[in-house]
Amino acid sequence: MKYLKKLMRKHRAESILAPLFKMLEATFDLLVPLVVARIINIGIRGGDKAFILRNCGLLVLMALIGLVCSFTAQYFASRAATGVSSKLRHQLFRHIQSLGFAEMDAAGVPTLITRMTSDVNQVQNGVNLFLRLFLRSPFVVAGAAVMAFKISPRIALIFLGGIAVLSVIVIGIMRITAPKYRGIQNQLDGVTGAARENLEGVRVIRAFGMERREEERFHAVNGALKAAQLRTGRIAALTNPLTYVVVNLCVILILYKGGQHVESGALMSGDVVALINYMNQILVELVKLANLIVTIARAIASMKRVEQVLDTLNGMQFPEKDKAEWSGADEAVRFEHVGMAYRGAAGESLNDISFTALRGQTVGVIGGTGSGKSTLVNLIPRFYEVTDGKIFLEGQPIEDWSAETLRRHIAVVMQKAQLFSGTVRSNLLWGNAEATDEELWQALEIAQAADFVREKEGGLDAKIEQGGRNLSGGQKQRLTIARALVMKPDILILDDSSSALDYATDAALRRALRALPASTTVFIVSQRTSSLRHADRILVLEDGHLAGSGTHDELMASCPVYREIHESQFRKGDEQHAQASFA
Fold it and tell me: pTM of the full predicted structure?
């Protein structure tokens, strides 16, 4: 709870004022039965109407003051709770942004979404109720017991016995339900994951007519969550009936004993009414306390889940300052016996990879599905850490460069095109916030996106919906390529980023990329040998190993894996035609 304590300190004033005003309200509540007892014992018994009216006016005044105190306490409690949850959510989001790809893969997107939304909301509710009731309810229970002793010490023993039994009930139910609420929050991750997966893959689901199957799968995880909530809810629901039974038994005993004392003259009828009112106050406050404990248990469980993310550290450490100067050396990238295994994987995704890419070269990466192509290029901007070997950029170990330098000099176009809600301009400016319209259009021309952007209403200011859902797959890919080109990077990585383009557009894009400045080193991951045939060097991967390295002609003569891939895409008679088309 260390993070919550730090955030609560920032709202110290509200956290003190809220319970104080609640205590003030509780004080007036405790005085009410005494005033009622005086009305019965003196006013009604003596027929003094003036006394009755004065005390009734006092009750109204006390009620108004209590109402003002209650509203004030609620105001400060809400300010503290919303302030804490807002800062916690921001802190969590900022921390998630600092995590590496490995930590994100291990946690999973559905879990992170649930912890940033549902779990933080549970913490907010817990803080709100805690500030309002954590002092008020015990104060009223203790105060009512003290008042009962003041009226009749013998009957007050009934209060002590009732409070002891009620405490056992409340604490016992809390101990049973607290771990179950943690399990419910974990199952909520599964529901979020299933919903997110279905929403993202809705086109595929409908294309294969698998709506019924996915409905059944979602029903299974949702049903499991429902069953867990019902089991826990049934246990928590025992709180009210059990407490009411105990309190009503206590009321019966008070009436029985109080009647005897009234007959003997030891008590007056108004005192018995006051004792019953105090017992009812204890009942109400213990029910509130029980609900508070349940809410606090859920909030603690949620806070622990949030803390798990906040305690997760990025496995990669970047220096604050570069240990060398990025000077545009002849050697752009060098891999020396590099191996890489994903966290929790049974084996390595890359093994003993060695090559050198010179400044200005175009390097192609090709191989079968799962051969490690994306893994290899993701190591260049240091999205993942190598497990064996060394990577050098500009002749310096990659660990010597700060994250800011790597992101400034290396542009990556991911395998999955991702755009953000806004405009074409706002998406392109991610590459360079200071870019001019001329530079934006130049990047769009190279990416073969200028034509369809001009056709859109607003041009650069055309609207882009969330995820770019108002664009086709090819349009999204071309815009993401243009976004990377706006950076004018020293190293450009295209991770199978033209898979949705037709052959003619792909060919035009490759020709435009060859016109980039000679200082730009380009890595192209592709499944098409036609897209890589003019690369200065082609790396052929097979099961994480480097099966071949060289030009297209060299690999056709010496690398069976590359030759097999090429021949599976082109018949022998199409070779000259393909070469002419992509020249």
Answer: 0.75
pLDDT in tens, 412-471: 998 888 888 899 999 999 988 899 999 999 999 998 888 889 988 888 999 998 888 888
CATH homologous superfamily of 331-581: P-loop containing nucleotide triphosphate hydrolases (3.40.50.300)
Q: Measure the CA–CA gap between 36 and 41, rounded to whole angstroms.
A: 9
Which residue from 40, 24, 7 is spatially nearest to 151, judged by alpha carbons? Answer: 40
Which CATH architecture is the domain 2-185+233-310 placed in?
Answer: Up-down Bundle (1.20)
Burial of 57 (0-12, 13-18, 19+ CB in 10 A): exposed
Among 491, 467, 228, smallest CA distance to 358 is for: 491
Q: Establish how many alpha carbons lie within 13 A of residue 361's alpha carbon, considering only the half-sphere containing its beta carbon.
A: 21
Structure tokens at 363: 């390097």
The per-residue DSSP string of 559-570 comes to -HHHHHHHHHHS
Which residue pairs from 565-571 have beta carbons closer than 8 angstroms and sit at least 24 positions apart in sequence?
Answer: 565/366, 565/367, 565/368, 565/529, 565/540, 566/529, 569/528, 569/529, 569/530, 570/529, 570/530
**In the chain, domain spans:** 2-185+233-310, 331-581
Inform me whether the pLDDT recorded for 504 exceeds 50: yes
How far apart are the C-alpha atoms of 348 and 342, rounded to whole Å? 7
